[in-house]
Amino acid sequence: MRLFHGSNMEIDKVDLPKCMPYKDFGCGFYTTLLEEQAWRMAQRRARIDGGIPTVTVYDVPDNLTENSDLNCRIFDDKPTIEWAIFIKNNRDRKFTDISSRECNLDCKYDVVIGPVANDTVGVMHDKSAAGND
């Protein structure tokens, strides 16, 4: 499986202490199956921090999540309530129940797989109720 990481520099070696906390799946090194998405993140990171937009490619075994040495959390391809709670808890700087299965602030999961959230993840919107059909 080919994974992509977008940044403002090439990443030869993952250095977890340099990873930012309070992200969707907790502090960690984020990759995507979508090269275009990685390029968008690289451009964003370079705009914010300077540097050159760079996408680093990683080839990992297709059966990575079957490795019994890894603690994996895998969500459905589509957002669910459980997924939204997990993201909300990881983003919340005041969340204190870090031992909860519903967060990764304590880095209990080695691998988390799930859909990408956007800034409206906490907003429930019903088009018909809002009259925007």
Number of helices: 3
Rounded mean pLDDT score: 87
User: How is the largest sheet built, in terms of strand order?
Assistant: 1-2
Please tally the β strands and state the result. Answer: 4
Straight-line distance between termini = 40 Å
Low-confidence stretches: 121-133
> Which structural class is indicated by helix and strand composition?
alpha+beta
Element-level helix/strand string = EHEEHEH
- Biggest sheet, open or closed, and with what strands and sense? 2 strands, antiparallel
Helix content: 10-25%
Domains (count): 1
Globally, the shape reads globular
Q: Which value, in Å, is the CA radius of gyration?
A: 16 Å
Strand composition percent? 5-15%
How would you sum up this structure, described in words?
- This protein has 133 residues and is an alpha+beta fold.
- It has one domain (2-122).
- 23% of the residues lie in helices and 14% in strands.
- It has 3 helices and 4 strands, in the order βαββαβα.
- The longest helix is centred in the first third of the chain and has 15 residues, at 35-49.
- The termini are far apart.
- Mean pLDDT is 87; it is low at 121-133.
